[in-house]
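Supplementary notes (optional reading)

For those who missed the lab, this is the record we used. Protein: 18337_t:CDS:1. Length: 475 residues.
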Amino acid sequence: ARPPPSLPLPEINRNDIAFERLIELNDSKIPVKYGKSNFDVVISVGKEPNVKKFRSHSVVLSMRSSYFRAALSSTWAKKQGDVFYFDKPNITPKVFTVILRYLYFGNFVLERLDVQTLLDVLVASDELMLEDFIEEIQYYFINLDSNLLIPNLIPIITTCFNNPSFGKLLNHLLNLIRRDPSCLVTQVDIFLLQESMLSSILEKSYELLDDSMMWSCIIKWGIGQQNMTLKDIEKWTNFDYERLHETIHSFLKFVRFSHIPRNYFIDQIVPFLTYFKEIDNETIRYYLDIPQPLTIDSKHNSFDVGLTDSTLVNHTHMSRIADWIDTGKINRPIQRQKLKKCTYRFSFPFFRKRNQDINLLLKSTAPPPPPKKPNYTFNLLYRMTRDGSSAYHDKCLKQGPTLVIVKIRLPSGGSILIGGYNPLGFDYFLNIDLSSLSQTFIFSFGDGKSFEGAQMSRVQTDWSRMTIKFSNGDL
């Protein structure tokens, strides 16, 4: 309970320096003299070489803390004459000064403390059963600006995870990750999470966290657990790879490798394929195959697309979109498309054994054909989580043919991918070629996991495809 407005302790004042001088025993050789203040408790806190002794009043401690109320009425504390002696080596002097000030005055300016000290105060408050102070500290963190909270995400989670008393703060952090899963990827100290903590976070964020981000989190955590670095990957031995796989294999079930952009897959995942059997053969075949040349009359064209830095879609999605764009260009009926199986494969040396296992090794010794220029290259112009919600027009206006893809999170916890293609780009209202408007379309990939629910729609008349100056030219 909080103290009453005034306490009958005239010699305790609210000045920090005066208060700390009053409660601290600086020299253990000097006998304790209580005088009018009637100090009857001495508490030794900290570990060598940072040990300090504090003096207090048993009546105050008992009134404010159920922990001290029980301790002072039992055999927990040593008593010499009229003085109780406590040892609290697991609480630092800095933290205990904050605790004592709260016990005497019922408040403390939390903004004065750095995050780690505040977490230490939170843990100490739980040990000393200061329920009101626990609530106050949690409330402070919950209302803290996210720019200050996110850099300290991992230490706060590790402090709260296994303590039911900090449930409100933990739920707030998990909701923060659900709203913006990318904040988890930026944590350089993610390896400090216990395995159970990371598993719980990934399980709850599975539907919202992009699969490339999921992979990044898992790899960072595993490498940190084994005290390795990606900078030294060329020096890794087979044992290092096997050790890493053993550490993270239980998390790989969360990663849908077929949803990862091809450039990311080849750059970030290819080095691990020999050791990570969880990546299915069909996914490997897709990412390591080069499509055959396209023919305009083919009923099942498979497009070679270039895709840079997307967290929402991969090359499979973009191949389907490229087909829709191409269908509009040649003005032919829309057909259900299937990706064509590819015939040429990369044969990197470190894939040789795995290629034999899955029968992918090329029998031909002829040199591979030169890389084929992509039919379509999609460059990232704007990402809200990167550029902010107000930068859309500055990034996208007058950029030529433009594709917009949006991920909408549903109240049920799932999400859908929708978008549209504008062959003219945005803010092009002069000299409009009506024939080019036939290429415009909107689409939906459903949850994005498969093409079962994929839909694409075009309008029937040219002028229905664009509204001049509507919503500042967005549509």
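If you only remember one thing from this example: Residues 1-14, 25-36, 290-302, 330-366 have pLDDT under 50 and may be disordered.
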